[in-house]
């Protein structure tokens, strides 16, 4: 079941209760739970646990009706009122066609002017130009991925999100995560140098955050959100190095089913490609947040998923990604 093992196995498969919370979390579909549990008993009448669940659901329905507790929390972005695009993209039903000329997309070896990459060019696949999203294949080795997961494992804690001026646990981000400093291990340091080489950006503190290692268990997900701050009060500004200009996200594991990264407005999703690193700019060159980068980590349906995030900030990049007054850039 992976590290997100807060779920109660049986009930998680049926999808309503979240053991991490003391209360019912209000997903609310108790009558559906009851129907499925009764159907289950039809096949396995002696199952004590499901028998107990049936009694529990019947009691809950009698006392509370079908909606119990508070409504599900959602990220605070108005665009999310319509979840259809997200759900379709996660199910692989969304349009995946690139609006750009196919000749501008595709694969290339990149040295990016870096002596480091001269020896081993990056295998870049350009997925979209607006927003600019590229995938670097074989960015880490299997051994490096294992080392990073092993280093993070003991430190994993339920993930939080920036909410107003605070950070909090929310139902729309179900995962565990840990932060790794580059001093934690030579492998972390090596990955940071590699990320600096492919992006051409300055990743030294405080120009980038520590490496955030994230583990999603079954059903783990992160609903559509922006990585950059959309409010000046966001805790992201506490680093005093501006907003998050870009994201590098490394896929540290494969996933048996689900778990793609969906870009809602760009209308496509990136399947989990083990050992690859995804890069995109969150901000436009004039410093405004790029609304086209709304993205999500789709629910993991089988297996578990590990990623590592590097969030790079605006300051330090002034000469590496010069600004522009043209709002289209
Ligand atoms: O897990 C993913 O595919 C996306 C994760 C993400 O967007 C994040 O951690 O900010
Ligand atoms: Fe994100």
UniProtKB/TrEMBL annotation:
<keyword id="KW-0408">Iron</keyword>
<keyword id="KW-0479">Metal-binding</keyword>
<dbReference type="InterPro" id="IPR011990">
    <property type="entry name" value="TPR-like_helical_dom_sf"/>
</dbReference>
<keyword id="KW-0256">Endoplasmic reticulum</keyword>
<dbReference type="GO" id="GO:0004656">
    <property type="term" value="F:procollagen-proline 4-dioxygenase activity"/>
</dbReference>
<protein>
    <submittedName>
        <fullName>Prolyl 4-hydroxylase subunit alpha 3</fullName>
    </submittedName>
</protein>
<keyword id="KW-0560">Oxidoreductase</keyword>
<dbReference type="Pfam" id="PF13640">
    <property type="entry name" value="2OG-FeII_Oxy_3"/>
</dbReference>
<dbReference type="InterPro" id="IPR006620">
    <property type="entry name" value="Pro_4_hyd_alph"/>
</dbReference>
<dbReference type="GO" id="GO:0005506">
    <property type="term" value="F:iron ion binding"/>
</dbReference>
<dbReference type="InterPro" id="IPR044862">
    <property type="entry name" value="Pro_4_hyd_alph_FE2OG_OXY"/>
</dbReference>
<keyword id="KW-0223">Dioxygenase</keyword>
<dbReference type="Pfam" id="PF23558">
    <property type="entry name" value="TPR_P4H"/>
</dbReference>
<dbReference type="InterPro" id="IPR005123">
    <property type="entry name" value="Oxoglu/Fe-dep_dioxygenase_dom"/>
</dbReference>
<dbReference type="GO" id="GO:0005783">
    <property type="term" value="C:endoplasmic reticulum"/>
</dbReference>
<keyword id="KW-0325">Glycoprotein</keyword>
<feature type="domain" description="Fe2OG dioxygenase">
    <location>
        <begin position="207"/>
        <end position="314"/>
    </location>
</feature>
<dbReference type="GO" id="GO:0031418">
    <property type="term" value="F:L-ascorbic acid binding"/>
</dbReference>
<dbReference type="InterPro" id="IPR059068">
    <property type="entry name" value="TPR_P4H"/>
</dbReference>
<keyword id="KW-0847">Vitamin C</keyword>
<dbReference type="InterPro" id="IPR045054">
    <property type="entry name" value="P4HA-like"/>
</dbReference>
């Amino acid at each position: 079941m992976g590290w997100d093992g807060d779920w109660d196995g049986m009930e998680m498969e049926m999808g309503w209760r979240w053991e991490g919370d003391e209360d019912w979390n209000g997903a609310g579909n108790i009558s559906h739970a009851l129907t499925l549990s009764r159907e289950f008993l039809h096949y396995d009448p002696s199952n004590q646990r499901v028998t107990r669940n049936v009694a529990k659901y019947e009691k809950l329905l009698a006392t509370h009706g079908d909606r119990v507790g508070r409504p599900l929390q959602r990220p605070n972005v108005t665009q999310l009122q319509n979840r259809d695009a997200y759900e379709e993209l996660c199910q692989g039903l969304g349009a995946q066609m690139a609006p750009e000329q196919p000749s501008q997309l595709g694969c290339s070896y990149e040295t990016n002017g870096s002596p480091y990459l001269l020896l081993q060019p990056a295998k870049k696949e350009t997925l979209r130009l607006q927003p600019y999203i590229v995938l670097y294949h074989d960015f880490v080795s299997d051994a490096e991925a294992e080392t990073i997961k092993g280093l993070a494992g003991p430190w994993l804690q339920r993930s939080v999100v920036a909410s107003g001026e605070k950070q909090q646990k929310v139902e729309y981000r179900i995962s565990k995560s840990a932060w790794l400093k580059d001093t934690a291990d030579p492998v972390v340091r090596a990955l940071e140098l590699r990320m600096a080489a492919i992006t051409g950006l300055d990743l030294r503190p405080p120009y980038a955050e520590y490496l955030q290692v994230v583990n999603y268990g079954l059903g783990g997900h992160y609903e559509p959100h922006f990585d950059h701050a959309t409010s000046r009060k966001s805790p992201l500004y506490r680093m005093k190095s501006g907003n998050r200009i870009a994201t590098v996200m490394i896929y540290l594991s494969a996933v048996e089913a689900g778990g793609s990264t969906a870009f809602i407005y760009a209308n496509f999703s990136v399947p989990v490609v083990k050992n690859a690193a995804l890069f995109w700019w969150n901000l436009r060159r004039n410093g405004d947040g790029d609304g086209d980068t709304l993205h999500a980590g789709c629910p993991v349906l089988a297996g578990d998923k590990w990623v590592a995030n590097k969030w790079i900030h605006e300051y330090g990049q002034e000469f590496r990604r010069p600004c522009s007054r043209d709002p289209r850039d």
